[in-house]
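Table S2 (continued). Query chain:
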Amino acid sequence: MSLLHFFSLYASLIFTPSPTVNSLQKIPDDRCASKCGTLQIPFPFYPPLSDAFCLSCVNSSSLFITLSSQSYRLLHFFPDGVLVDFPNTTATCRQYNDLKSFSFSANQFFGISSDNVLDLYDCEDSSLCKPDCETTSLMPGCDRQGSRGYPSCCYPLSDHSSWRPGDSFTKFSQYGCRGFSSWVTFPGNTTGKRGVKLEWGVPGNSTEPTCAAAANAVNATSVTSGIRCQCPDGFSGDGFSAGVGCLKSCFKDGKEVQGNDCYRSKHGKKKAIILGGVITSTIAVVSFTALYLLKRSIRSDKFVPDKSRCQTVISSHKVSRSRLFTYHELEEATKGFGDAQKIIDSPSTTLYAGVLTGGSRVAIQKVQCESDSNLIRLLFRLETLSAVSHKNMAHIIGWCIESGSGALVVYEYPGNRTFKEHLCQSRDHDGSTTTPLDWYKRLNIAAEIASLLAVLHHEISPPIFHHGLQTGCMFVDMDYSVKLAGFELHIDEGSECDSRRNDVYTFGLVLLEIITGNTNCSETGALQKIKKGKVEEIVDPSLYYHEQAAYWREQIEVIADLATRCLLFGGDGKLSMFDVAKELVHMNKDARRGPALEETFSNSSLLQMISMSPDSIYTTNLN
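Corresponding output:
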């Protein structure tokens, strides 16, 4: 998104009035429940977009929605729907329900979601049963039979072969089925929540705009001609003109902030976008200077950079604040660039650990320059990276350009080893007295890296990409916070879209390493285990998965799901680093409250807390 386009979007959010959508027929707010007990009802149910979204609260504890003259109790809110119970259900849940017990199928605002999974009872025609579903999906609660709890005739509505959106559950009577049970499986889990998920949408054929100026319209799957409004990357909110619309969303100091907070800077700090403009202007100056001073004859067999001229290029710019080392200094710091000092040795980069004469620990990145254009591109990248200040980005102390040695870039190195070394120690039990990384430390490091990459991708112009993300590039300090180094320095950025995808995909590999503790983890094998619901089989033994509280096990499974989405959808641009960071930051925030979350917070108060950021609602219990 260009800077001009971004500000035009922001201005439209401030100055564009919110039109009323005639087709939605908004009703007075006082007719519908705004809260139930301590639970604040989220949009679009309050303020209600239409009478169809009006909820009633009974005994300050239970929410009900009326559809086709029948009341249904709400069990969960989803970003795209709600989970409701079977009507007239008693305290003791039924193993199977009659096909006619859930009479609602669809209207112009709600439809039975394709996310539901069914266990069909006593069907005469078993051709609709799906074997894959039967072995990977566990029935929740009292629906379980035997020790395994697997359904006897499992049918996911997403299959669409025997049931299609708009159909009712009586459709299965054609196969001689006499009853069914329904549930929804949450991402990262194999056991779901009993009930029927209803997708919601609003009529998309209105003559007046439904979505806010910056939002995109997304077609509903189960609601005919229905849409929902969705904010683009970098914005959060409900996306509706009748709601809060879309607010600029960004990360500052590892926290998600919204609206004007994204444009305010703390004393002594520059705004990321202004910084981006300064970087762009400075690079332009460097390019012309470098082209002029580096224009010289080159031996045909080897490129030999001229140190004195390179120093002249960088001495008049911000990079001059960094130290210019001699090759001898860095050779001595790394003990002759010995193999024992290597932190990373990969096709994309080589990093060495070293100690300078004064005792400062450093990491030194060796970059080969084979032409003038390589060297100029390297100077561009150094200029850009040196101008960025972020607590999770390793500071560039200086560099060295010597004849025959290419370029050497010197980063700060906290000295508590790399994230890769910590993970390897945890899995291999190398006899070290250092305590292996627990799950909370791993999750915190993942959230920090994701937040940094989200800033580099979405908050700086032009955006910065890593291109070689791996756990060996992540330096851990004594507080188990992390600093990222090892950026690819002389690549051709090419397509910005491709660069974003590369970082999201490789971050998925990092998440797999965090779960498995295995830096040589088989991507294919791990994904197959996750798909089959056997996450416990790939979890790092030092995490003692089966001894963890259910809260922690669930978090591991959710991260496994996120890793899968990064690997499957990061490569085609369907998942951005902003989306990934948002999930991890919210999960990390919850993790700080510990496994006793469900005992210390009521489910309703938790929903109230996260409903303030509509896009962040994942799934929340109401009962």
